[in-house]
Every structure is written in C-alpha cells, then in structure tokens.
Amino acid sequence: MVPTFPVPLLFLQVLALQSVWSSAPQEPKVQSSPQTDISSLHHPTWSLGLQLYRSLRIDGSQTNTFISPLLLANSLLALEHGAKGPTAGQFHDLLGITKNDKAVGEVLTKALKYVREANGTSYTWHISSALFSKQAPKLKKSFLEKLQTHFGLQHVALEDAQKQTDMEKLQSWAKSGMDGEETADLEQALETKPGAMILANALHFKGFWDRGFYHENQDLRSFLGTRYTKVPMMHRSGVYRHYEDMENMVQVLELGLWEGKASMVLLLPFHVENLARLDRLLTQDRVEKWLGKLNSTSIALSLPRTKISSTVSLQKQLAALGLVDAWNETSADFSTASSLGQGKLHLGAVLHWTSLELAPESGSKESMHEDEDVEKPKIFYADHSFIILVRDNSTGALLMIGALDHTDGPAIHDEL
Ligand SMILES: *[C@@H]1O[C@H](CO)[C@@H](O)[C@H](O)[C@H]1NC(C)=O
Ligand SMILES: *[C@@H]1O[C@H](CO)[C@@H](O)[C@H](O)[C@H]1NC(C)=O
Ligand SMILES: *[C@@H]1O[C@H](CO)[C@@H](O)[C@H](O)[C@H]1NC(C)=O
Ligand SMILES: *[C@@H]1O[C@H](CO)[C@@H](O)[C@H](O)[C@H]1NC(C)=O
Fold first, then answer.
1. Is the shortest distance between the CB of 296 and ligand 3 below 6 Å?
2. Helix, strand or coil, per DSSP, at residue 51
3. What residue owns the CA closest to ligand 1's atom 8?
4. Which among 244, 278, 375, 377 would be 20 to 30 A from 52, CA to CA?
C-alpha cells in the first residue's frame, strides 16, 4: 500500500528526470551527491517522522506527543530482519527500502552512531531499545545477536502473567532506560496475546544551547496551552536564524546546540491557539521550505523552562502507513526470527517513551548567559503551544519531533 502523503520534492524531480530519460536510455544514471545537504530533508527519518507525527495528532486526543523518528526507524529496521515475504515488504515500504538497496540501513546506522558520539556535548541523552516477547516460540540466536550487536536492541521475555504486570514491567524498563525520569501513562491498556513481540523505545533528551539563557525560578508566567499553567520563563536576546511565514502565521526559529552537532527548530503560531492547524501544515515540503528561508535576525527570545513526558503506542498509525500484516497472527511472517513462529509470532505493540527537557544551560561553563547587543529585536515569546524538531547536523537525521501543548506547572484558575 502506498501512503497518501505529499511526495517529497526530490522524488518528483527524479521522476521528471526519469521520464525525460526514458526516451534516451543511453544516458548515464544520475549520481546522488555524497555530500549531505543539511537544509534538505532527504534523510528517511523525516518522511517517517512527519507522517507518524501527523497521524498521532490527527484526532486531537494526544497532547505533548513526542517521538524519536531515528530510534523508531532503527528498531523497525531491526525487526524487519526477522520478517519475510509480504510482512518484510511492508517494512521496506514504510522505511523507503527498495530491492537490493542497503542505503537506508546504512544511513540510519550512521546517524545513530553520530548521535551516540555527540552525547555529552550538544546534548545528553539516555536511550533504551528492546524487543519484548510474550509466550513466544524460541527466537533464533542469530536474529537476537543481530538485534543486539547491530541495532542495540535487548531481548526480554515476558513471563506468563497478568496484563497489568506486563505493562508495569515495560514501564519500569522505560523508566530505568530514561535514567529514572518519570514516565507518562499509556492511554489505552496493553492487550497482548501469546506470540506477541513488543518493540519498545525509551529516551530522555536534554539539549545544551550554544548560548545559555537567563532565568529566575521564582519568576512564574502564564503558559497559555491547552491548559493554563504557571511556568518559569527563560530569556535571551541575540541573533538567530529565523523566518516568519505571514501566510500561515507561524514563526520558525533555529537554536543551535553546543558544538553545532545538532539544532532545535521551534514552530510557534503567531497567536494563542491549539496546534491542530499547525499540525496539518507539517508536510515535508513545507518544513523544507521553512528551513530554507531561515535568515539571521535579531530576536528577543523567551522559552518556558519545562520538561515534557510522552508515552505513545503506534500500532494504529503504523498500520495506516501500510504496516498491516505484522500485527496479524495469521498472516504475520517472522520466520527469520523463529522457524517455529509461523502463524503465531506477530507484532503486539510498538511503544515509545520520551522525556525532553527545556533548560537554560549552555554546553560551555564559561559562556553561561550573555545577551548580545541587538537592535529592534523581533519578539519570540513562547508562552503558548509550539512544535519542536531536533535534527542532527552532520547527517540531517530527525532525532525528535513533538509538540508542547501545555506545561505541567500549577494550574491557573479564574483569571481570565
Ligand atoms: C550519554 O552519556 C551519559 C553519561 O554522560 C550516559 O549515562 C548515557 O548512557 C549516554 N547515552 C548513550 C545513548 O550512550
Ligand atoms: C552544522 O555543522 C557545520 C559544519 O560542522 C557548521 O558549519 C554549522 O554551523 C553547523 N550548524 C549549526 C546550526 O550549528
Ligand atoms: C535574508 O535577509 C536579507 C536581508 O534582509 C535578504 O536580502 C535575503 O534575501 C534574505 N535571505 C533569505 C534566504 O530569505
Ligand atoms: C489476518 O489475515 C487473514 C489472512 O490473510 C485475514 O483473513 C484476516 O482478516 C486478517 N485479520 C485481521 C484482523 O486483519
């Protein structure tokens, strides 16, 4: 099944070129440039991440939704190695893998490697990825070794127990993988049948700015999200890459992280509104255009100091993108993972825990907070819901995408 989403620009260009060439088959094949163009969103994590994000948000029931497309893509690729036939084909379509093409796998592995190396400079992050199995037939040793060594996924067998206990076990696994951060509860109960495999990712992310913020913990302001709360704001003036889309009424701002290994992009509507309108605008084409128009601008910037926790189950969204057979006990084919598995071994859930911290610190102890001398700065006052993207600078991968719909401070009553 082909998902019905806007086709990336590059793909259209390639199609156009191919149709020109079809009349001249002698022409040499186009060589894609080995140099990654950072402002373009060719990395496969963008297509997957934006589609999943929009799909998670479409009915408005999820708030403070975050995922890491890079982690997710990596773990789906790991599981793909256990699949065969149409089940494997649907993983390929989802991840953009074409026949005999190792590129996607290499690109994902490379990005994850860079990201691990940047840990401790531009950001710290704690990540855990695992494949849980519930009363499943024995998984092949070669498959489990590949999961562990190549993709960094542990394998954990869930014993025959109450559902409640499975979820508790997963939750405590996630919490320890996130260095003890509090985890949000999953909205629906987890229902697993014997033979189910559960793919789980957990991460805690804290970025360090290239230039730190001024903040007062006592200085509480109102955050006008889907709930109104009090939150400390952090402030800084300086020159940032910025773009104002007048037509769509959104400000786009790029914040570099320490040592330039990653950056955070914020999308803030001009006015207080819930993010439904902006969520629908988030196509790959549009984000690419926005990033291409960023321009050095004087900004007076204020951000909430906060922590966002999110737990999502992605079955519905992945199925909508064409991953259909993997969930079906009858048609799932994970016979590379286990020769005994046919007709039983299936995907039971894909769970994702995320915690992201917005804090004032820069990566450098010396340049803590220092305002730049700027004239007539534009105001970027993030006291209402906004979208956050984090991308790796060296590979262009989308590390995280999510929404801050509300902060978790004390609620404001009867003020308005
Ligand atoms: C990042 O570094 C911290 C220590 O600074 C470590 O505890 C953590 O496991 C590292 N994360 C990854 C993904 O390697
Ligand atoms: C990304 O990396 C390049 C080269 O290392 C650097 O010139 C650029 O400033 C970085 N971008 C950001 C946003 O830090
Ligand atoms: C950036 O701003 C300058 C001066 O305002 C302008 O000349 C230039 O075209 C802008 N660049 C982009 C990419 O919008
Ligand atoms: C599972 O697959 C079988 C065989 O392809 C099909 O008949 C059945 O409808 C599927 N079940 C679900 C719930 O999709």
1. no
2. helix
3. 126
4. 244
Q: Do 349 and 391 sit in the same domain of this protein?
A: no
What is the distance between the alpha carbons of residues 6 and 4, in angstroms, rounded to a whole number? 7
**Are 238 and 372 a contacting pair, CB within 8 Å?**
yes
Q: What percent of the chain has pLDDT over 90?
A: 64
Pocket test for ligand 4, best of 90, 330, 345 (most atoms within 8 A of CB): 330
Enumerate helices (H) and strands (E) in the chain, giving the number of each: 10, 14
194 class by beta-carbon count within 10 Å (0-12 exposed, 13-18 middle, 19+ buried): middle
Domain extent for 276: 210-305+370-404
Same domain membership, residue 121 and residue 153 = yes
DSSP, res 366: S
Is 315 close to ligand 4, i.e. is its CB under 6 Å away? no
Q: Which atom of ligand 2 is nearest to the CA of 210?
A: 14
The pLDDT-based confidence of 163 (bands split at 50, 70, 90) is: low
Does residue 274's CB lie within 6 angstroms of at least one atom of ligand 4? no
Least confident of 32-36, 73-77, 133-137: 32-36
For ligand 2, atom 7: residue with the closest CA: 260
Candidate of 37, 208, 296, 393 to mutate for ligand 2, largest count of ligand atoms within 8 Å of Cβ: 393
Distance (angstroms) between ligand 3 centre and the Cα of 293 equals 8
> Backbone dihedral region of 354: left (phi > 0), alpha (psi from -120 to 50 degrees) or beta?
beta
**How many structural domains comprise the chain?**
2
* Domain match, 337 and 396 both: no
What integer pLDDT is reported at residue 284 of this predicted model? 95
First to last CA, the chain: 49
pTM: 0.87
Mean pLDDT value across residues 344-351: 94
